């Protein structure tokens, strides 16, 4: 038996599961620290593409390609979004295995606020006073980290920017999440396969290496752990209010931060704490403003 409440609960569990997986991924990629980052990203693309394209072909045949055939502009947009998400994945994996998990978590804390800025700059959206305040506080946090921690948080800002641009381009597309991911995967598949073959031919590959089969198994499962949260997220956003999903998304960078500090032993001194607290305050202002506005119609209707 299914109904709106059942769909809501399933969507809530799917969204929570997706963000928990994303939050714990640094520990997974850390297990593959001996594999070059480019090889990991190539495996991630190939195996996630196999899973997503296989699922789409099994369930829909080739019907999911109809949107691209009917809208040539869509093909170009998805090629561009595929490049942004591949770059984001590659930088993230490199950063995790180079000991920058805390900074990657900062990037995904900043991302929602950067989405707001992109809306103003590229879509000419107008910000409410609370949103301007959130952006200003977050900017202060980034500046604090830059000048007091001693280095510009380029990893965090590049991750946030690349993922925000991915989301912006996908916002311009008129295609469901899963077929869109399938088309993006199709664009990335051949370059990723070429990179894997080049790695094997030059002795830099890790297929059937000294740690086989564990390394190979982890690389293959990495593709599944890339695709499954995206599928779960796509399922959830159709059944759960975006305001709820927006709050749940902070599970991922919070868990990443915990992994970096408590498990992987990265430093988190006073200057970093102050910078992060400023950004958390900004997120709280942004989230509370969104919740209050989402409830106003319901209150008025009651």
Automatic annotation (TrEMBL):
Superkingdom: Bacteria
Record domain EamA: where: 10-146, 155-285
Membrane topology: Multi-pass membrane protein
InterPro entries associated with the record: EamA_dom, EmrE-like, RarD
Entry's transmembrane regions: 12-29, 41-58, 74-94, 106-123, 130-146, 152-169, 181-199, 211-235, 247-267, 273-292
Family the entry assigns: Belongs to the EamA transporter family.
NCBIfam families the UniProt entry points to: rarD (TIGR00688)
Protein name as it appears in the record: EamA family transporter RarD
Source organism of the structure: Novilysobacter selenitireducens
């Amino acid at each position: 038996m299914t109904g709106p409440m059942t769909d809501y609960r399933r969507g809530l569990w799917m969204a929570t599961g997706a963000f928990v997986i994303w939050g714990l991924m640094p520990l997974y990629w850390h297990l593959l620290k001996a594999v070059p980052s480019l090889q990991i990203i190539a495996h991630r693309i190939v195996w996630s593409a196999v899973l997503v394209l296989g699922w789409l072909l099994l369930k829909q045949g080739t019907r999911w390609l109809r949107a691209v055939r009917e809208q040539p502009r869509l093909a170009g947009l998805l090629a561009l979004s595929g490049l942004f998400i591949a770059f984001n994945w590659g930088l993230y994996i490199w950063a995790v295995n180079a000991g920058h998990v805390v900074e990657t978590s900062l990037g995904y804390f900043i991302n929602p606020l950067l989405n707001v800025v992109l809306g103003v700059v590229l879509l000419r959206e107008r910000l409410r006073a609370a949103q301007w305040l959130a952006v200003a506080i977050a900017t202060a946090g980034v500046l604090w980290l830059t000048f007091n921690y001693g280095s510009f948080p380029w990893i965090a800002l590049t991750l946030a920017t690349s993922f925000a641009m991915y989301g912006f381009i996908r916002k311009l597309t008129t295609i469901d999440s899963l077929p869109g991911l399938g088309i993006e995967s199709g664009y990335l598949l051949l370059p990723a396969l070429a990179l894997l073959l080049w790695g094997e031919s030059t002795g830099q590959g890790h297929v059937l290496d000294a740690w086989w089969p564990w390394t190979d198994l982890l690389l293959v499962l990495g593709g599944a752990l890339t695709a499954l949260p995206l599928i779960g997220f796509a399922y959830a956003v159709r059944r759960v209010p975006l305001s709820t999903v927006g709050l749940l998304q902070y599970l991922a960078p919070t868990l990443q931060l915990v992994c970096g500090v408590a498990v992987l032993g990265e430093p988190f001194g006073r200057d970093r704490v102050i910078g992060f607290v400023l950004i958390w305050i900004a997120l709280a202002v942004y989230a509370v403003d969104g919740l209050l506005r989402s409830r106003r119609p319901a209150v008025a209707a009651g």
